[in-house]
Amino acid sequence: MTAIIGIDLGTTFSAVAHLNESGIPAIIMTGSSDKNILPSCILFDDAVAVVGEEAQKAMWVNDPNAVGRFKREMGTDKTYSISGQSFTPADLSGIILKKLAGDATAKLGEISEAVITVPACFGHPGREATMKAAEYAGLKVQNIIDEPTAAALYYGYKEGKDLGGTYAVYDLGGGTFDVSIIRVSGQDVEVLSSSGVAKLGGHDFDIMLQMLVFDKYKKETGETLINEDWSLGEAESTKHSLSTREEVKIRINRKLITVTRGEFEEAISTLIAQTDMLCESALDEAEVTKSQLQGLFLAGGSTRVPAIHQAASRAFDLEPIAAANVDEVVALGAALYAAYKGDRKAL
Ligand code: ADP
Ligand code: MG
At residue 157, what are phi and psi to the nearest 5 degrees? Predict the structure, then answer.
């Protein structure tokens, strides 16, 4: 049997999904340690391209042989020079897709077709670069669909009923923010408007948190810290803790520093204000008022930050619908789309 897969080729994390034997959309585990999501990072170790966690760790320490966040440049003429070789963003995305396709093939057998998602705001060049990346990975791609479309299909499936009406999709990942107003009728999704910033996401929160901790350390000890003392990777894991805890203690050079959720929220407040404005402009552009919305769907790992959840709710006067696996909903929706198109029914 051949398999059809859906791929979320993300700025910071990618994921691949399919419809399992029971007809349920399911993530295919990837990477060297079988995780649901794979860091979209590549480490060039001699001539070998290592994709995933090890490459992400190398990024945190600014290893010149590591590269990430190239999706932001898809469709531009930017090139990356790494280990004496030159790569386009499409080449690098192709390496990520090849890894995902390889892991999926190892688990499911031959892949007959893949659906890949892109941000709704991607123009023709970004979509074409994505097709090129798929070609490099040896994937047969008949459909590239918008990320909010995939998220809506998954939420519709989860609600167990055909959606109908106008919805907002608020997607905050690691590198980018995208908000879309969509019109849904069953499995048909039309993106009415999409606003976003290519450089606003969880990675920026990590930088803000690192700066906050460096400032506190300086006030308490008089000493200046650098990335090597407390890396962005450590900032990211402290940020995750602050999503469930009000306060976290961290130890740097034998000194204990306390960071509170309130301090973190204050540090990212200007970034949150930017998302508020973009939500408004998405509504304006779609000529839709808040009261006309049937629902608000969340996607992207950064919507786990409580202040972001609240900001989304405030922006649309709606209690958001959020899956526990917000960072998987786009890949799962892509798998559903692939199945609908392939006439395989989801259960
Ligand atoms: P992409 O940018 O590829 O769309 P994701 O949707 O997977 O990526 O989002 C990744 C971002 O989500 C990262 O910045 C990560 O730190 C953040 N994130 C994941 N889980 C949490 C959490 N529990 N609290 C805060 N941020 C989180
Ligand atoms: Mg994403």
Answer: -60, -45
> Crossing angle, helix 232-244 and helix 202-221, to 10 degrees?
100
What is the spatial distance between Cα 10 and Cα 118, in angstroms, rounded to a whole number?
Answer: 8
Model pLDDT for residues 105-120, shown as the tens digit of each residue: 999 999 999 999 999 9
pLDDT in tens, 239-259: 999 999 999 999 999 999 999
**Residues in a beta bridge with 137:** none
Alpha-carbon separation of residue 124 from 121, 133, 252, 286 (angstroms): 10, 14, 47, 21
- Residue 301 alpha carbon, nearest atom of ligand 1: 12
* C-alpha 327 to ligand 2 mean position (Å): 7
Beta carbons within 8 Å of 50's beta carbon, 6+ residues apart: 42, 43, 44
Most ligand 1 atoms within 8 A of CB, residue of 177, 245, 302 to mutate: 302
**Alpha-carbon distance 11 to 175, whole Å?**
6
Question: In terms of DSSP H, where are the helices of the chain?
Answer: 53-60, 89-108, 124-136, 147-159, 202-221, 232-244, 261-267, 269-286, 306-316, 329-341
Establish whether residue 196 lines the binding site of ligand 1, counting it when its CB lies within 6 angstroms of any ligand atom: no
Question: Can you state the percent helix, strand and coil of the chain, rounding each to 5?
Answer: 40, 30, 30
Number of Cβ atoms within 10 Å of the Cβ of 89: 25
- The answer, yes or no, to whether any atom of ligand 1 lies below 6 A from the CB of 203, is yes
Read off the pLDDT of each residue in 289-297 and give the average, rounded to a whole number.
98
Question: Which residues have C-beta within 8 Å of that of residue 223, sequence separation ≥ 6?
Answer: 217, 253
Indicate yes or no: pTM above 0.70: yes
Residues forming beta bridges with residue 93, ordered by sequence position: none
